[in-house]
Design brief:
The complex is a heterodimer of chains A (about 325) and B (about 325).
Chain A: E1 12-14, H1 15-29, E2 33-37, H2 55-59, E3 64-66, H3 71-83, E4 87-94, H4 102-109, H5 112-115, E5 125-130, H6 145-149, E6 155-158, H7 162-174, E7 179-184, E8 191-193, E9 207-210, E10 215-219, H8 222-235, E11 241-245, E12 248-250, H9 254-264, E13 267-274, H10 279-291, E14 300-304, H11 313-319, H12 323-334
Parallel strand pairs in A: 2-3, 2-4, 4-5, 5-7, 6-7, 10-11, 10-13, 13-14
Antiparallel strand pairs in A: 1-8, 6-12, 9-11
Chain B: H1 4-29, H2 44-52, E1 59-63, H3 67-73, H4 77-84, E2 108-112, H5 118-132, E3 138-143, H6 150-161, E4 166-172, E5 175-176, E6 179-180, H7 181-184, H8 191-196, E7 200-205, H9 209-224, E8 230-235, H10 253-261, H11 264-274, H12 279-302
Parallel strand pairs in B: 1-2, 1-3, 3-4, 4-8, 7-8
Antiparallel strand pairs in B: 5-6
The chains are: A alpha/beta (about 325), B alpha/beta (about 325).
């Protein structure tokens, strides 16, 4: 895996590579950045998806530590070291495995600053990957961001492209709060424009990668690509979609979202996660609370089915949110 | 037997704990404080001997039944009492309460209300010390019940493979909440579990100040020398229920009678007399502790509650919206 300093930076990089470069930069910038996770050191392969490849060779196994398969011990070690000045990045290989570490994340990482009256803080980052569509079935694919967004004291981040992944992961590591950084397995090896080495994306700031006038598609992560594709298609029919990429799910950038919807007067929230009780419900509610009387129609929501992620491709496809779903929802709203 | 000044030190801490526990129960019983309280009477010597073997800058992670550990580690009584009472002057501005006492100035980094959860966090503190080569140790206190939760096994395993400078102090009071150890714990001892994880593990009478102190000192020296963690299973007893109001009806009468006969506090006091500490000197320690507690209790009562707006502060590094 290439890093900015070992060869000329390529113009296009993969998502996984961008994450690797962000960690490399953070480790170079701050000796207190350490990495913990299963198989992450180079002797163990640099991570099952090679996202940490080359980092232990460069920074040593004191700072890039392969761990036992012990998720609560991994996050606990990150919490403890964060309390005394470290900026640990814990890799939880797949998002479903965070269930094992929920006590450490929810009861400790998220609350210790508050419960200590601000005497301590927990500036850790938990990197984790997930996403359906590749036949990994019910325990390796869930998008669980709503769980974490519901916990005060955590920040939740999901990038939609390699450059943002680079800038957001760097900001997450340097942030003084615990951050859940969600990567997407099926798009790990998708390329996008490479960021400049000093590219930083602040947490809590959405972007508007496509401006439009008829409807706002509010989304993040993989939903951004799908929303772009639908926007492109509908442009041919004279429908102008604005795409808002939240980038930080919690706390989300209400100002940008409300500004966009105040302009278009219509919105669909799009995410890969199960629709029911998802982040779309909160975002939709906030729009209704602020802009109800201005809306052309109630805010729509697109998400995946209220079922575990299925294995067989036919069922998985039927279950999963799709560009067709987004298009249907837009046409319904715009009548 | 430990040296005279060490025993006096342990007694001074332990007496403060005993008197504090008595005072808390009295004030809660009398309605002056309305809090959930987990009594520590009976476990004073374990904590005092352990903390006498480490320094203020060493780290402590403890649990909801933690008053003894926190006082033994040196948190000023006023700050601690005010936090127990939920006042703005408390260690955590009243936002943590008795189950979440934190006081980095005395090394008290985490008090958790979740059984066993302190163990993985203690590893992180110890990992920081190992990386920083700061020669600190981390003491992690928990009860026998915690050895039945996954965090114990994950945490001890990781500490051992990384040879972290941490001392796992299992204060085995033989009851996890209302359940006797033999009912819920498959091994005869907690030490066996440490042995099984390849960890240096010892089992001592935690109620004997000299024995407990020797085990603590050895574990601390072992950790500071870079040899790794130790599991100390310190046998002790809890003279009151799981929490105040629990009568402890599930503890057989004979077992309680025997435990009370073995009360570590009068035994330690007698040991001081035996090594020629005068009754007057002991009484002076007790009187000083009593005065500290009176002042702390009054301070807690007199202090103001925090402002309600405080809930918006310390959630993140910036204040959250109302």
């Amino acid at each position: 895996m290439s890093t900015p300093e070992n060869k000329e930076a390529p113009k296009q990089i993969m998502f996984a590579q961008a994450c690797n470069m962000a960690m490399a930069k953070a480790m170079a910038d701050d000796p207190k950045v350490i990495l913990l996770g299963e198989d992450i050191a180079d002797e163990q392969g640099g991570g099952v998806f090679k996202v940490t490849a080359g980092l232990s060779d460069k920074y040593g196994t004191d700072r890039v530590r392969s761990t036992p398969i012990s998720e609560q011990a991994i996050v606990g070690a990150a919490v403890g070291s964060a309390l005394v000045g470290y900026k640990p990045v814990a890799e939880i290989m797949l998002m479903n495995f965070v269930t094992i570490a929920m006590d450490q994340i929810v009861n400790h990482a998220a609350k210790l600053r508050f419960m200590s009256g601000g005497q301590t803080s927990v500036p850790l980052t938990i990197r984790t990957t997930t996403g359906a569509g590749t036949g990994l079935g019910g325990q390796h694919s869930d998008m669980l961001e709503a769980w974490f967004a519901h916990v005060p004291g955590l920040k939740v981040v999901a990038a939609s492209n390699p450059a943002d992944a680079y800038g957001l992961l760097y900001s997450s590591i340097m942030d003084d709060n615990p951050v859940i950084f969600i990567e997407n397995t099926p798009t790990y090896f998708t390329k996008g424009p490479a960021p400049a080495p000093d590219h930083v994306v602040p947490l809590g700031k959405a972007s508007v990668p496509r401006e439009g006038t008829d409807i706002s598609l509010i989304t993040y992560g993989r939903g951004v690509g799908a929303s772009h594709a639908v926007a492109e298609k509908l442009a041919a029919d004279g429908i102008s979609c604005e795409v808002v990429d939240l980038r930080t799910i919690a706390p989300f950038d209400e100002e940008t979202v409300l500004k966009s919807v105040a302009k278009t007067k219509a919105a669909v929230v799009v995410h890969e996660a199960v629709k029911n009780f998802g982040t779309g419900a909160e975002i939709s509610s906030r729009i209704h609370e602020e802009l109800f009387s201005e809306l052309k129609a109630p805010v729509g929501r697109v998400g995946s089915g209220y079922a575990p992620v299925p294995f067989s491709p036919t069922i998985e496809k039927a279950w999963m949110f799709s560009e067709d779903d987004i298009e249907r929802e837009i046409r319904k709203i715009l009548g | 037997m430990a040296e005279k000044d060490v025993l006096i030190d342990i007694f001074t801490r332990a007496d403060l704990i005993m008197q504090s526990d008595i005072k808390f129960r009295k004030m809660i019983g009398g309605g002056q404080l309305q809090i959930v309280y987990y009594p520590v009477r009976g476990q004073e010597v374990v904590a005092s001997a352990m903390m006498a073997a480490i320094n203020q800058e060493d780290y402590l992670v403890t649990i909801y039944r933690g008053l003894h550990d926190q006082l033994a580690k040196g948190i000023p009584s006023k700050d601690l009492w005010a936090e127990f009472a939920g006042k703005a002057t408390g260690t955590c501005k009243g936002k943590g309460g008795p189950m979440h006492i934190t006081h980095p100035e005395t090394g008290v980094m985490v008090t958790t209300g979740i059984v066993g959860s302190g163990i993985p966090i203690a590893n992180g503190l110890a990992l920081a010390s190992q990386l920083d080569k700061d020669n600190k140790v981390t003491v992690c206190c928990f009860g026998d019940g915690a050895s039945n939760i996954g965090a114990f096994h994950e945490g001890l395993n990781m500490a051992q493979i990384w040879k972290l400078p941490v001392i796992f102090l299992c204060q085995n009071n033989l009851y996890s909440e209302h359940t006797p150890m033999e009912f819920a714990t498959s091994s005869k001892t907690i030490k066996q579990r440490g042995d099984g994880l390849g960890m240096r593990s010892v089992r001592v009478n935690g109620n004997d100040a000299s024995e407990m102190y020797a085990a603590a000192k050895e574990a601390v020296e072992y950790a500071r020398a870079g040899n790794g963690p130790t599991l100390i299973e310190a046998m002790t007893f809890r003279f009151h229920g799981h929490l105040l109001g629990d009568t402890g009806h599930y503890i057989p009468k004979e077992e309680m009678e025997q435990a009370l006969k073995d009360d570590p506090m009068p035994i330690l006091r007698q040991q001081l007399l035996d090594i020629q500490v005068s009754e007057a000197d002991i009484a002076a320690i007790e009187a000083k502790n009593a005065a500290i507690i009176e002042e702390a209790a009054q301070f807690a009562l007199d202090s103001d509650y925090p402002s309600g707006d405080e809930y918006r502060i310390d959630v993140l590094d910036v204040e959250i919206a109302a």
